[in-house]
Amino acid sequence: MRGSGSPSGLLTPDLFASRPLENNFNFSFGRVAFDDGQQVDSKLSGLVASKKRKGPSDPRTALEAAKKKRVRMNGLDEEKKAEIVEKDAWLNAKKKAHGEKVRDDESLLLKTLKRKKKTKLKSEKEWNERLEGVQHGKEMRQKKREANLQKRRDGKKDKKNKVKGSKVKKPAKKVKRPGFEGSFRSKAK
What we know:
Blueprint: E1 39-40, E2 47-48, H1 59-74, H2 78-97, H3 106-165
Antiparallel strand pairs: 1-2
């Protein structure tokens, strides 16, 4: 029915119709995880891509973490320290093999921080020079504008003074009528 305002019964499903119960027993109560950190997906058909835990991305926090680690290591006994150093060496080797970057060398992190600070200062200096250049350009254009306006004012004053000073009464000319500009005398004399 057109124009009745109600949609046809074919387009909308009956929400209150009885549905057969679906027997879905495809669920699990826990996760299957292996020692290397990989997990099996819910259907037990493949592995879930594990989220890589990366260290701090910026050099400052990486440096702080490395310093904290060094302080913590200094507080441990020699046997425990050697065990942790070996474990870290293996972990770092594994990370490097997977293509991850290992940022735990304090001297390199300090160099990186200094380099970043230097580039930041350079960029700031260039930006300030650019702003000064823009300001200088504005001032120069303003000065030029003022000079041009002053020149125009002076020109108008000079013109007025010239007009006032040069007003000399000239003898009145005879008003000529159109069609009679020439004289009756012949011009070929």
